[in-house]
Amino acid sequence: MTEPTAQSPRRRTGYLPVLWGMALRDLRVLRRNLAPFITRTVMNPLLFVFVFTFVFPRIGQTFQPGPVGVSYATIVIPGLVAVGMVFTGISAVALPLSMELGGTREIEDRVLAPVPVELVAVEKLLVGALQALLGGLVVFPLVALVPATPVQVHVASLPLLAAVVLLASLTAGALGLALGTIVRPQQIGLMFAVVVVPITFLGCVYYPWALLRPIRWLQILVLVNPLVYMSEGLRTALTPDLPHMPAVASLGALALATLILGGVGVRAFVRRTIS
């Protein structure tokens, strides 16, 4: 009974080089496809911020879902960073994983590696989270520079910003893992129509959650959407003077979303790979 116990720590330590090798391979693929990665990450947020915060002010049209005197660019930038991270997590994990588990079965070489299948899924989640983090870092300066009206971003607490970005990245990676293991390749188009578009428009990206108070049922309903907490958490960290959720609520919900989505994704990954 003592011998397996003595060997198990060494065995677990031996998993790390294998997982690190998998992660390096994923990152090398990202480096080779860096230009497409940046393009798909910034295109949607950049077009939105260009039209609503550059074109509209220049032609005399205004859109003000927030306090008077605050530019719409200031309101929307945290949400655009959040949606950029979600899109990146889905593109980095869900789309290729769905294809690998479906027609190509390219995932089988990883499943045969000398590590538990669950850890292979966790590696996918973490690499997706890293790409989501990079996506947010790419989107923020671009959408902050485009608007014709002033952008009033104020970081009140760097630790809070770091915590929000970290948990938001993990949530994006977990969402990508869950979708990639549940959605079949032939259902990818349906996934965008039924999942991605609704969570984007109902994710408090383009308006603060507090402004939904007149539609109370909707304000409560959107709380199941993890993008709400990503947007509101970044709003708390980047624009603390605007209406926002308490930081504790956003951080707690993001941690819970990561655990739930990650758990669903890992279990579905195991079921799909051993079937």
Task: List the defining traits of the structure above.
single chain, 275 residues, mainly alpha, 10 helices, 76% helix, 0% strand
General shape:
globular
User: What would the average pLDDT be, to the nearest integer?
Assistant: 82
Count the DSSP helices: 10
Straight-line distance between termini: 32 Å
| Content of β-strand | under 5%
How much helix is in the residues?
over 70%
Please write the string of helix (H) and strand (E) elements.
HHHHHHHHHH
Structural overview:
With 275 residues, this protein is mainly α. It has one domain (2-274). The chain is built from ten helices and no strands. Helix 2 (34-58) packs antiparallel against helix 3, helix 2 (34-58) packs parallel to helix 5 (117-145) and helix 6 packs parallel to helix 10.
Quick overview:
The chain is mainly alpha-helical. The chain is built from 10 helices and no strands.
What's the SSE blueprint?
Layout: H1 2-32, H2 34-58, H3 72-104, H4 108-111, H5 117-145, H6 158-182, H7 188-201, H8 216-221, H9 226-238, H10 247-274
Helix pairs in contact: 1-5, 2-3, 2-5, 3-5, 3-6, 3-9, 5-6, 5-10, 6-9, 6-10, 9-10
